[in-house]
Each structure stands twice: as C-alpha cells, then as structure tokens.
Amino acid sequence: MENSLFDGLEQAGFAGGRTLVIAMNGWNDAGEAASTAVTALARQLELNRVVATFEGDDFYDYCTARPRIVRQDDGHRILEWPATKVHAAKHPQPNAAARVLPNANRLYLLTGAEPSMRWRQYASEVVEFCQREEIDRLVVVGALLADTPHTRDVPVVRTSEDESVQQEFDVESSQYEGPTGAMTAIVERARQEGIVALSLWAQVPHYAAAPEASSPKAILALLNALAEVLLVEVDIDSFVEASSHWETQVTNAIAMDDEMTQYVKFLEQARDTVDSEAASGEAIAAEFERFLADESPRDEGEDR
C-alpha cells in the first residue's frame, strides 16, 4: 500500500485532504457488507466522536424505517430514532487512530439508516457539512447481489464519474442505469460543489444471501479495499475466519442440491475465464453458450 487513490489526487493538484466514507443500511447494503465494514473501520480506528446527525420527520417514513426501543446500561428504555451520523476521531490531535494518516481528522465516516424522503434536501445538508469541515472527497461503500461464486474472492467494483479520477488512476465510469439510492444523490450534489467521489461496490453471491444475515466474505473484501484506498491498517483476522466458516457452510448446503451445484460450477468457470489473462468478450460468450447448451432439454428418448 505505498500509494492510495487519494494520495494521488493530492499529487494531481486537488486541494485539501479530508475524506468522508459513506455506507447506509438498507437497499445499498446486501449481506450487510457495507455497513458492517465501515462500522468495523470506525471501531478499529477509534472514530467514535459524533460530529453530525441527520434525522427527523423530514427524512424518514417511520412505517418503513421504524424507531427502536433499546435498553441502556442503567436499565432505562429509550426510543432510538432512525438517523445517519458522522463519526470522527475522538481526539483532535494525532493518536493511535492516525497511525498511518497525517492526522486523525482527515477521515470521517457517515453510517446509519438510508433516509426515506427528501433526498435532495438531505444531500444538500450532507454536502454543506462537508464544506464546513473542508472535506473534498467521498468514498461511497455499497454491496449488491450478483452472479458471483461464493468460492472465489468477492469482487469489489471501483467506479467514479470524475474524469480526473478516471484518467489518473484507470477508474471507469459506472455503466449502471436504473433505480438508485440516497448515496448517489449525495455524490451528485457533491460533484456540483467540486467534491470528487469514488464508489466501492461489493458483489455478494445472490444465492447465498439471506434476509438480515451478513456476508462475511463481502465484508472482508470491502475492508481490504478500504484499507488500500485510505491507507489505513485494519485487523482482518476475525473476518478471515468468519469468511472461511461461511464459505464452508454455503458449500455444504449447495452440495445437497445437484442443480445448484451445477450452477455454482458455471459461475466458477465464468469467473475464472473473466479473470484469466487471455479473457476476451468472445471467450466469455463461448463459456456462457456452453452452459446454456448443457442445460438445454435433451431428446425424449435420451436417458436422463
């Protein structure tokens, strides 16, 4: 990790040097990978001082993002309302949290429940906070369900809509078109104010995802990507162990279903083809056609 993306941005002439990392629960967070990875980052870097809170009736429909009753250490119950909060280092001076950053205040993390309403107002308030804190770059962290095998490393796709980022670091623009989330609204508003952004999206195996269940392998992939981009040291040992255990569990479950076993083999072959040095569009198409041929109905007189 000799150079990070954002070290390069400074060398290319971008002013400032503070970064806001954004991850939200909900639609953007398959396998709870993004929210868990960023929460783990906050815990390990001691980013536990709340410096901003975005909440209230303007942003949340409480029928879809319900408040929760929680019991405090003293035994009293309180109502915890949905919100997003920005955390930063507890101490203003460099400390253990800043061991590989010039100072701890260069890194901010925004996490919490994705707002339900008034995204343009919400995005403007987040960007206003960035301007007050002289934050000039965003890292958006998400996770989506995808056709990727659980037996391979979870891919983390990096994209940016900023030409300078694309040209300097070979980061491509996203080709996605369709429904999106509040994080995109923040990025679009931020770009209007000259704040650049990088997106990190983990591709979670869709067949291995369960409601309200985490995906340790995707969490591990995002932690590694964040460590590389932000030049921070992250202890990943527990996530490596959890990832291995999760993979074994999924493999054992799939072994009981012949159809799923064949499907995972196809995903593995397709992934290996894409990752190989000789990968080409023709090779990938041929692999897909082979899979379809294997799955096509046989003649009625042929043994099954």
TrEMBL record:
Gene3D superfamilies named in the record: PAC-like subunit
Any coiled-coil regions, as ranges: none
Pfam family, one: PAC2
Organism (species): Gulosibacter bifidus
Protein name per Swiss-Prot or TrEMBL: PAC2 family protein
